[in-house]
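About this split. The held-out portion is used to measure sequence recovery: a designer receives only the structure tokens and must propose an amino acid at every position. Recovery is the fraction of positions where the proposal matches the reference. Here is one held-out target exactly as it appears in the evaluation file.
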């Protein structure tokens, strides 16, 4: 029986988030520049989107560029931004064809104007799609997002629109960039690193974490299936005992 055949379609994670890590190290092992790793990683993105949509995943969020990535060498940042634009150009029609809606989260004010225009264009062109929601985290950081939410809450409280005593976790979540989606049930990180790296910190409180040594450019549908199967073999208790479930 194949990995795909072993997956219980009735128990899929609604939302999968992925930290796509290892492009640079993958390229270095092949004596190639880091940019070559990022270009190869774009193919893994396509495979993952296709695999997730085929399974019936409703939300897929990919950590494409962190707030800290701005500190990388200027040439690499420029190459990443150029790759982002070319990938959107190349894949936009496929997203529409497959009924996949596109969105982004993050501090988008830091993006170059040309990149922001391309992102906005893709969002507009797919806004009527009703299938999987594909979200790219660009210029994103979990601490930035939480701080930004606190600022907005403070502003609303100062205007008398919100009573501080009424603030709950559920209300707080509505001020996050992910307010239009459920928290991820499964978070995958490639390349063997065992950390969240400032990704979806609030949202991942009860997320199942899956770490693999596979470098991102080598990630494929089979690796996605392995992660989903691992998720399906876990007991999600949310603080309760096994007997209470």
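Reference sequence for scoring:
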């Amino acid at each position: 029986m194949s990995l795909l055949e072993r997956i219980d379609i009735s128990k899929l994670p609604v939302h999968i988030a992925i930290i796509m890590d290892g492009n640079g190290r993958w390229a270095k092992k092949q004596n190639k520049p880091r940019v070559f790793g990022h270009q190869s990683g774009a193919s893994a993105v396509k495979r993952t989107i296709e695999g997730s949509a085929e399974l019936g995943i409703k939300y897929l969020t990919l950590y494409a560029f962190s707030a800290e990535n701005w500190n990388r060498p200027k040439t690499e940042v420029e190459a990443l931004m150029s790759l982002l634009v070319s990938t959107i150009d190349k894949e936009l029609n496929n997203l529409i064809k497959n009924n996949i809606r596109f969105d982004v989260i993050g501090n988008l004010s830091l993006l170059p104007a040309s990149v922001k225009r391309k992102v906005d264009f893709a969002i507009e062109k797919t806004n009527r799609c009703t299938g999987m929601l594909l979200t790219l985290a660009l210029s994103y950081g979990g601490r930035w997002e939480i701080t930004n939410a606190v600022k907005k809450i403070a502003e609303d409280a100062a205007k008398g629109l919100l009573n501080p005593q009424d603030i709950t976790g559920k209300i707080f979540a509505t001020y996050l960039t992910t307010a239009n989606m459920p928290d991820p049930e499964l978070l995958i990180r490639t390349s063997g690193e065992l950390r969240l790296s400032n990704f979806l910190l609030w949202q991942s409180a009860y997320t199942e974490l899956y770490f693999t040594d596979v470098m991102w450019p080598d990630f494929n549908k089979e690796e996605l299936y392995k992660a989903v199967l691992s998720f399906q073999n876990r007991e999600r208790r949310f603080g309760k005992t096994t007997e209470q479930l």
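Annotator remark: The mean pLDDT is 95.
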